[in-house]
Amino acid sequence: MDFTKNLFLIISISSFLLLHTTNAIRLHIPIEIGVTKLCSGTTDPALCVRTILPQMHGGFNRYKALEIEILVAKNQALKAVAIIDELIKSPSCSQGMKDSLAVCQNQYGNIIDSINEAITTVQQRNAGMTNLKFSAVFSYRSTCEDEFQPEIPPPNLANAAEALKVIGGNVLDISKGLENREIRMMQKKGLMPDYSKVTSPPSKCLHVVGPCSE
Question: In CATH terms, is domain 67-190 a member of 3.20.20.70?
Fold first, then answer.
């Protein structure tokens, strides 16, 4: 009789541990799988995985992944700022080119400000607001490009701007996906997100190839 009771107790404990272990596995998504899935619908999935995965530590987190990609975009914008500063100081830079670069210098300052605002909102786990804040990056970038029409920007600046465009596209794709997820979760609770405090609408220049004016 004691043997039967002990056997039943062992089976019960084993079943309990198996159930909770299975639930734990379901709750904790492996980092590589999570990042790959998150990046699958972005502008450049391979670049998205390559820039996020090495910086993702301590388990997969969608908002942390988005913040990492925003920081990558910020670093790219800072590279463009450094290129602009160097070009302006160059003795071979014409006055007309300096005037155009000065406009870009101002626009990239606005880009950095918008990115910093996006970082703040993603840290607040508000992907909808992050998407709105970051969308301004494309408008400012386009204004810089327009300054060189009908000429083209210096090659090194053009390359930096194009890299920012691709990474920025990844940011907007991820943030939009998270925004949709937030909306679904709020709808289940009978709520809706409130963006009434947003002062700047999304840019119509998102993902536009070439010049675009607001």
Answer: no
